Amino acid sequence: AQPVEKDDKAVLDAMRSMQFGATEMDEQKAAEAKAAEEAAKQAEADARKTYETLLGVLLTSEDLDATVKERYYECDYKFLETCENVKATAAESGDDEGVARVQAVIDSISKEAAAQIEAATAVLGKVLNAGGPGLMESEMAKLCKQGKVSSAVLELLEANIQAATAAGAAE
Question: Rounded to whole angstroms, how far apart are CA atoms 15 and 25?
Answer without folding.
Answer: 12
